[in-house]
UniProtKB/TrEMBL annotation, chain A:
InterPro entries: Thiolase-like. This is Lipid-transfer protein.
UniProtKB/TrEMBL annotation, chain B:
It comes from the Bacteria. This is Zn-ribbon domain-containing OB-fold protein. InterPro entries: ChsH2_C, ChsH2_Znr, NA-bd_OB-fold, Thioester_dehydratase-like. Gene3D superfamilies: 6.10.30.10, Nucleic acid-binding proteins. Residues 184-216 form the ChsH2 rubredoxin-like zinc ribbon domain. Pfam families: OB_ChsH2_C, zf-ChsH2. Residues 63-126, 218-283 form the ChsH2 C-terminal OB-fold domain. Residues 293-315 are annotated as: Disordered.
């Protein structure tokens, strides 16, 4: 961690919406931008760099991110970029842009209408296009293969998975959840994050632009990737998450973690890979709005710091099948 | 207001070139053999890798492995989805073939989930017709390798290209603004919206791309306007509805601040010009629905050409 304010970057605003009416997402983004900028006390014209994460496959139309630029107001011209990944990776791009001195402020946003298509089939297209995608394995079945490996090797039980779900939803108990039918053995409905529409935005600023604003300082970010082939990695370990956490400076002292786990068993795999002790509090999320969920974890972790509920928070985002790609971001209060 | 939505299917046959490793792997499948790639550590990968993850050198040694193997993990699907290997309930499994060190993903035709277990033995059921594609493996079935596990074993020529059809289904939904526009069209009206900040009128209505704010007030514009720019389509393509040459133009409707693309017919392509005044030719009123196709095309209105200054801002 850089001890001086020079070269430091902070989150100064966050907003999210779980409502998305249209396929393009433009109308959803306008109020999200307004809210994030209001919390950052920044004007739209003061944003040096815009960066987004979304996917044409989710929207079912080409160049869908270009439409979204309407929500920015792109006249006079703006500096803008896009990643075909969760917008947590767009945040990484913006973070580097600020560290490089090419921008002082950035607004990062992610959006997606997960309910527009059959998400489990759409996600098959991120698999190896030669030997796997032509079989159309759906995302829930693929997740189930990973869960069973964890159960067979004794890392957790179906009861442990239900306990993760029950902890997120006070109205359910482990017993009632275990009575429910399988969606894809050994996974039940509560083990799979609900498909959702959504959008979120995070505002970043360099130290000299933070001023007196509330800020959560990014003390480190790492992102790593594991091999694509399911047979090429130990699916019960998440080496890229462990490596990303180390790259982010380690998670010692973290009081709260916001993890992006599309399945209950993946939350348990991640806590293990990240070495998070039980006393580290979790920010609960019930749904998985594609392409904004990871960015929202960073926003939520930053909120924990900006509100004073935690001095050090960790956020995690994942992309690709079965936790293939992982990003870890550590946020700290200024004091 | 209720917004309009409609089903949307997109489809494309992806053709992918294979290279020397996957090309030989697919040729092997066509011949009823499974080839793995050996890396410098001695491990055999199925499917083969193109590069050694340890040394980063190209993988060149392919070795045959057994068509039978062991299930390392499995799940069961009661409702197969479009495109999957079987259209009746089946298991998905990670299968390590005998002689391989890595597992591959495929379907197991086991009849019921009771017949599935970790550690179970399965063998390949080959597709009746094999073309050099991963789908040459129809699926796996419980059992050991039989005496007849495929074709003649000849690899033949390296497979250079695989084709994989992709079909995805969506429900495309419109915004409140777009729905107002489409409902207007069903009544023979063209409805845009005005930006509250810069006062420009967008047809079809959208968030103002200059100001980044939602447009609010509905504004009806004329069904005639000015050609700002155009192109002559001379190239035939799949799905083309008209015979080339024909003209696609940007038409700035009177009252709008942004042009719409449309066909210009009823005039030789060579006579279409910037500034040409055109009017919409609507389809038969009985056929009108909530679609831009209610306007079949535009054709010259007979008015004098618009001066360049009147549309210069919109080029
Ligand atoms: Zn405007």
């Amino acid at each position: 961690m850089n001890g001086t304010s020079a070269g430091r970057v902070a989150v100064i605003g966050f907003a999210a919406s779980d409502v998305s009416v249209t396929t393009s997402g433009v109308e959803t983004l306008v109020p999200v931008f307004e809210a994030a900028l209001a919390r950052a006390a920044l004007d739209r014209r003061d944003v040096d760099f815009w960066c987004s994460g979304s996917s044409d496959y989710l929207a079912g139309r080409a160049f869908s991110f270009v439409n979204a630029v309407d929500a920015i107001g792109a006249v006079p011209p703006i500096a803008e970029s896009h990643v075909e990944m969760d917008a947590a990776w767009a945040l990484y791009e913006a973070y580097i842009k600020i560290l490089a001195g090419e921008a002082s402020t950035a607004l990062v946003y992610g959006f997606g209408k997960g309910t527009a298509g059959e998400l489990a089939r759409v996600l098959a297209l991120q698999l190896d296009p030669y030997t796997v995608a032509p079989l159309w394995p759906d995302a829930i079945s693929v997740g189930a293969l990973q869960a069973r490996l964890g159960i067979d090797t004794g890392l957790f039980s179906e009861r442990d998975l239900a306990a993760v779900a029950a902890a997120r939803d006070e109205t359910s108990s482990v017993e009632t959840l275990l009575d429910r039918p399988y969606l894809a053995m050994p996974l039940r409905e509560h083990d799979v994050a609900r498909v959702a529409d959504g959008a979120s935005a995070v505002v970043l600023a360099a130290a000299d632009r933070v001023g007196g604003r509330r800020a959560a300082w990014i003390s480190g970010i790492g992102h790593r990737v594991d091999p694509q082939g399911f047979g090429e990695r130990d699916l019960t370990a998440v080496p890229s998450a462990s490596a990303a956490a180390a790259d982010a400076g380690g998670l010692d002292g973290v009081e709260v973690a916001a993890l992006h786990a599309p399945f209950t068993h993946q939350e348990l795999l991640l806590r293990r890979a990240l070495g998070l002790p039980d006393e580290v509090r979790s920010v609960a999320f019930g749904s998985n709005p594609m392409f904004s969920a990871g960015l929202s974890r960073i926003g939520a972790a930053a909120e924990e710091v900006m509100s004073g509920r935690a001095a050090v928070a960790a956020a995690h985002a994942t992309a690709g099948p079965l936790l293939q790609q992982n990003l870890v971001c550590v946020l700290r209060s200024g004091s | 207001m209720d917004t309009l939505s409609a089903p949307l299917t997109i489809a494309f046959d992806y053709t992918r070139s294979l290279g020397p490793v996957l090309g030989r792997f697919m040729a092997g499948l066509r011949g009823g053999r499974v080839l793995g790639g050996r890396t410098s550590d001695g491990r055999v990968h199925v499917p083969p890798l193109e590069y050694d993850p340890g040394t980063h050198a190209p993988v060149t040694e392919l070795v045959e492995v057994s068509p039978a193997g062991t299930v390392l993990s499995w799940t069961w699907t009661d409702r197969p989805l479009e495109g999957q290997p079987l259209d009746r309930p089946f298991g998905w499994a990670l299968i390590r073939l005998d002689g391989a060190d890595t597992a591959l993903l495929h379907a197991v035709d086991a009849g019921g989930s009771d017949a599935m277990s970790t550690g179970m033995r399965v063998r390949i059921r080959w597709a009746a017709e094999r073309i050099g594609h991963i789908r040459d493996i129809e699926c796996f079935e419980p059992g050991e390798a039989g005496p007849d596990s495929g074709g003649d074993g000849a690899d033949g020529a390296v497979v250079e290209i695989v084709t994989t059809p992709i079909r995805l289904h969506y429900r495309h939904s419109t915004s409140v603004e777009e729905s107002g526009y489409l409902r207007g069209l069903a009544e023979g009206r063209i409805v845009g919206r005005r930006c509250p900040a810069c006062r420009k009128v967008y047809v079809p209505p959208r968030v103002c791309p200059a100001c980044g704010v939602a447009t609010v007030d509905e504004v009806e514009v004329a069904d005639r306007g000015t050609v700002t720019t155009f192109c002559v389509v001379n190239v035939p393509f799949a799905g083309q509805r008209l015979t080339p040459p024909y003209v696609v133009a940007q038409v700035l409707l009177d009252g709008a601040d942004i042009p719409i693309p449309h066909l210009i017919l009823g005039v030789p392509a060579a006579e279409v010009r910037m500034g040409l005044r055109v009017a919409a030719v609507w389809r038969d009123r009985a056929d009108w629905t909530t679609t831009p196709e209610n306007i079949d095309h535009f054709e010259p209105s007979g008015e004098a050409d618009a001066p360049y200054e009147t549309f210069a801002e919109h080029l």
